[in-house]
Amino acid sequence: MPWNPSEIPDQSGRVAVITGANSGIGFKAARHLAAKGATVIMACRNLEKARAARARLPADANVRIVELDLGSQASVKKAAEEILAQYPRLDLLLNNAGIMWLEEGRTEDGFERQFGINHLGHFTLTALLLPALRDVAGSRIVTVSSIAHRAGRIHFDNIHLDGQYGRQRAYAQAKLANLMFAVELDRRLQRAGAQTRSLACHPGIASTNLAGPGIAEETPLGIGRVVRWLWPLMTQSAEKGAWPTLYAATAPQAEGGHYYGPARLKEAIGPPREARPRRYAMDPDKGQRLWELSERLTGQHFP
Question: What is the pLDDT of residues 266-283, one digit of tens each?
């Protein structure tokens, strides 16, 4: 039978950090994990929206809010310090937050913003939180990629796409980086004998607010607003889109270094199962090269 969230094991005593937990897939994941007894840390850029999201969860849910702007390496470090001060042991890290299809721009640290937020912000956060995860039995790090990774490649010699920027090109590169990072991280965890496993997933084509700014607010002539209106009719719900994340985070049969997504219509919709990554994403030489580049850009090294 297809997997669904009713199969999530009891999460009592477990602590989960979820980036971008105030909306979409992150919010649905937070709701399910909290309902199963987990302590959920909602790591969000907008505190007002995070508090509003918290108000939509049951009052007795064990939920905390931490301010996190993935576009600022300083904010990532501050958030990690705050989390570790309260929770020296973590069980789950869901690298979920992201941006999509935005016009060219830079983060506070000068990174192309889709790559900087979707990948480099999570790279640093994972490195800083790893000491609280690596020796915890059953701990997992889940990084959300996208079927858009299939169209991407890592522009190692022009990672910020100077003079070559395109919304889809930048997004595909960033989501490919998410997948490559998750796979390379698991290789390194296994070599180090850590108990933590790293997995990747994607939501298929889900109706969330991720595409909102890119296809509506930043698209000329109002065309994007029409697409945004039609978007829910063309996609599965945010609830269903969260299932691969929850499967990767909790299913006993989900394995480190693997990639999970919807089962139907070329991974666009449906219950979760193992997905098919591009061969490019699984190349260990490219994975190591991306890792080393990420270390140089962020100045962050894994313990």
Answer: 778 899 999 999 999 999
